[in-house]
Amino acid sequence: MSSPVTTSPPPPSGTPVGAPVLELRALTRTHGSGIAEVHALRGISLAVYPGELVAVMGPSGSGKSTLLTLAGGLDTATSGQVVIEGQDIASLGRKGIAALRRRSVGYVFQDYNLIPALTAAENIALPRELDGVSVRKARKEALAALAELKLTEIADRFPDEMSGGQQQRVAIARALVGDRRLVLADEPTGALDSETGETVLALLRTRCDQGAAGVMVTHEPRYAAWADRVVFLRDGSIVDQTVSTGAESLLAGVSEATGTNGTGGTGGTGAANGNSGTAGASEAAQ
Ligand SMILES: Nc1ncnc2c1ncn2[C@@H]1O[C@H](COP(=O)(O)OP(=O)(O)OP(=O)(O)O)[C@@H](O)[C@H]1O
Ligand SMILES: [Mg+2]
User: Fold this and answer.
1) Which residues lie below 8 Å from residue 7, measured CB to CB, with a gap of 6+?
2) Dist. CA 207 → ligand 2 center (Å)
């Protein structure tokens, strides 16, 4: 099924130019019906360009994971479109979406989602092998990814022999291995101490600087400070969008947009791109 292509909103000033890697167009997701109806997303439009890392923040239940699962083709929208590298994923069919996910989309799940019967290295190598990479090459790539995350010693351990933080880093390595153009990460630093969290953010940042597009859910302003833009969700809608200039503007943005006080440190070095200020909700919601 192919849907009509609508005009995309222009990128916010200061973001990289070129075609977006990911476009969400008027996306809604409703669960249940009648009195049990839950509007997890209420019309989200967002474009993420090559080189850009976008942080998604918002209270629990605001729709952050829903946004990411739809963007990654893991769930189907009630209405609206998800366009990845110019293709409306609804037109690809299940097999096509699965192939796109293996090849182009790295996904870090909130609960890691490692396969219990596979070791760390095997978990990382699996999507590459499924995509036709030789077992030997896939293992080599997996070991290199583990080394980058300082996890060489757990390469042959199974998930139940790892700490939560180690499982989380293995899940991140699995998302980054290969030539992924879009990296979607749901609280990738949740189980990590702040030093390891910064290492993970630096890796994500580098991957985006090399041309990938990244979307990361986080509750921590110090991690969001690594992003080029922060999108704030509340009750399934984008309520604000801030160009990152570092942790302090983010802390102000968090309390303004979500009605909460920002917590977390001010350690992020950020990826300020020279712009400052907060885009209006109307611009963010286009
Ligand atoms: N399968 C489902 N059935 C019914 N409601 C659901 C389902 N999945 C999510 N929801 C609801 O949709 C809303 C958004 O959920 P979502 O998991 O996207 O929130 P979140 O922002 O990721 O929260 P958290 O910060 O706690 O992870 C919530 O109200 C949630 O209860
Ligand atoms: Mg969530």
Assistant:
1) none
2) 23
**CB 33 near ligand 1, within 6 Å:** no
CA of 139 to the centre of ligand 2 (A): 31
Question: Listing from the earlier edge strand, what are the strands of the sheet with 229-234?
Answer: 105-108, 182-186, 213-217, 53-57, 229-234, 237-243, 278-279
274-282's contacts with Cβ under 8 Å and 24+ in sequence apart are 274/14, 275/13, 275/14, 275/243, 275/245, 276/243, 276/245, 276/249, 277/243, 278/240, 278/241, 278/242, 278/243, 278/249, 278/253, 279/12, 279/240, 279/241, 279/242, 279/243, 281/238, 281/239, 281/240, 281/241
CA dihedral 163, 165, 170, 175 (to 10 degrees): 150
Going from N- to C-terminal start, the domains of the chain cover 22-284
Q: Which CATH superfamily is domain 22-284 in?
A: P-loop containing nucleotide triphosphate hydrolases (3.40.50.300)
Q: Which two tokens stand for residue 107?
A: 């996904």
**Strand 213-217 with 237-243, pairing:** unpaired
Q: How do residues 184-225 score in pLDDT, each as one tens digit? A: 999 999 888 888 889 889 989 999 999 999 999 999 999 999
Query: Does any ligand 1 atom lie closer than 6 A to the CB of residue 61?
Result: yes
> Which residues are within 5 Å of ligand 2 (an ion), measured at CB?
65
Q: Which amino acid is at 24?
A: L
All residues at 6 or more sequence positions from 285 whose CB lies less than 8 Å from its CB, including other chains: 43, 45, 237, 238
Q: What is the pTM of this model?
A: 0.81
